[in-house]
Amino acid sequence: MKFIQTLKLLSKPKLLSKIKNSKSGDTGSSFVKSYKDLMKSGKPTADFYDAEMLNLVWETTPEAIAKLLPPPLKPTSRPLVFAFIAYYPSTNFSVPYNESALLVKASYKGEEGFYCLSMPVTDDMAMAGGREGWGYPKKMANISFSRDGDTVTGYTERHGIKFMQVKAKLSGKVNNDNAALDEIRALGINPDGEFSDNVYLFKHSPSPVKSGLFDYPPLLVEGTTRFRPKTFTWAEAEIELTPSEYDPWSELPVERMLGGFYTVGDNSMLHGRVLQKVNELEFLPYAFVKWEFEQNRPKQ
């Protein structure tokens, strides 16, 4: 339990006593957790063990990124896109599952990170935790990811459309004979040890009230993941983006593929921080990365 939460409890001695005397399973229902169970299940980080990931970096057009960034995020000097496809065989919060993601380079008050546009997953608890806790734009999808020797392939599919297909050769170098190796390493990628990334997210909840937009002002959140690779291999990568109105990854065309890298290792999502509240009306046009309009769904 966090220190600040404990301090607040000191002003409520009856509740504090109830928490101290709590026993596992003493609520009599699986719908209701005891305080002891809640304290035991509290985790300082979300951990992924032996996570297998193929990461790709490419350059798109400045216009493509500029139109997708909600304020107060701003484009960076280079229009870079980052995508990955992953298999998580073991975590401290969910069953094994697959995941893919699409992110674009963005800046907040001069600090650069990646804004997450899409993060399909194959597990409902991973989807719910990411969406409700952080604001990750997660949706359920079919995701295939496999390695055969030095070749890695995968795809992400929703509504019958394989909107993202990847293939990589684990050659130990990136595309065009390592032409962009320094550019990729400049993003903080460290093939010889640990490295981290910063991701920007917008946590928001639609209001059930007819006259309301959101339950609360949308929050700009920053999250950090620490990567500890056991295996790291530079890769010559290619990606095919098929147009889909449900998952419009193709709106970020590949102008120049920099390359990719394949890792197997342990990752940890650290606690995030809220950077600021954002204006509801300004954010509203960007609020639909987490769901689709009913009229756009294919007929059954």
Characterization of this structure:
By secondary structure, the protein is an alpha+beta fold. It has 8 helices and 13 strands. Strands 1-2-4-5-10-11-12 form a 7-stranded mixed β-barrel. The longest helix has 11 residues, at 124-134. The mean pLDDT is 91.
How would you concisely characterize the structure shown here?
This protein is of the alpha+beta class. The protein is built from eight helices and 13 strands.
What order do the helices and strands follow?
HHHEHEEEEHEEEEHHEEEEH
Given as residue ranges, the uncertain stretches (5+ residues, pLDDT < 50) are none
**Roughly how much helix do the residues carry, as a percent range?**
10-25%
Number of helices: 8
Tell me the CATH topology: Acetoacetate decarboxylase-like
How much of the residues is beta strand, in percent? 35-45%
According to CATH, the homologous superfamily is Acetoacetate decarboxylase-like
Question: Using only CA atoms, what is the Rg?
Answer: 21 Å
Cα shape: globular
Key terms for this structure?
300 residues, alpha+beta, Acetoacetate decarboxylase-like, seven-stranded mixed beta barrel, 8 helices, 17% helix, globular
How is the topology of this model organized?
Elements: H1 3-9, H2 13-20, H3 35-41, E1 46-59, H4 62-66, E2 80-88, E3 90-91, E4 97-108, E5 111-121, H5 124-134, E6 138-140, E7 142-148, E8 151-158, E9 161-169, H6 175-178, H7 181-185, E10 195-203, E11 219-241, E12 256-269, E13 273-277, H8 280-283
Parallel strand pairs: 5-6, 5-10
Antiparallel strand pairs: 1-2, 1-3, 1-12, 2-4, 4-5, 7-8, 8-9, 9-11, 10-11, 11-12, 11-13
